[in-house]
Here is the input.
Amino acid sequence: MCERYYINTELRIISRNINNYFINYGNRKKLDRMTGSGGWIISYIAENYNRDVFQRDLEKEFDITRSTASKNVDLLVENGFIEREPVDYDARLKKLVLTEKAREVFKIMRNDRAALEDQMLKGFSDEEKKQLRGFLKRLSSNLEIGEEF
Here is the structure.
C-alpha cells in the first residue's frame, strides 16, 4: 500500500519547529511579554521605517481582520512597544510608531531571525534557495481567497 505524502503536514511540522526554535534557542526571555504576532508587527513597522505605517497596512500584509489587527495593536500599545500618532494630512488616521523599547526588541528579533534562516537553509545552494522561495510563494498564492477549491 502506498502512503500519500501531504505537504500541509510537512509545513505544519516546519511551523512548529520554527516556534520551538525561538522558544528554545532565541532570546525569548529578553523580549518582555512579546507575542509571536507582536514580533511580526514590530518587524514590519521597523522594516518600513521610510514610510508611515497604519493598521490597515497590517491587515493587508498579514491577511488579518480589522478586529485582529486592532487587538494586536492595542496590546502592543498597552505594553509600550508602539504608539499611535496623528498625521498632518488626515485627522482620522493614526500612524504606528515604534518606541525605543520596540527598537531594542527588534534588534534582538532580527538577530534571531537571521540565525534561524541560516539554520534552516544550511546546505542549500543559492539556486535552491531561490527555487524554494518561488515554490512557497506559489503555495501561498494557490490558497488565497477567491481561488478555486
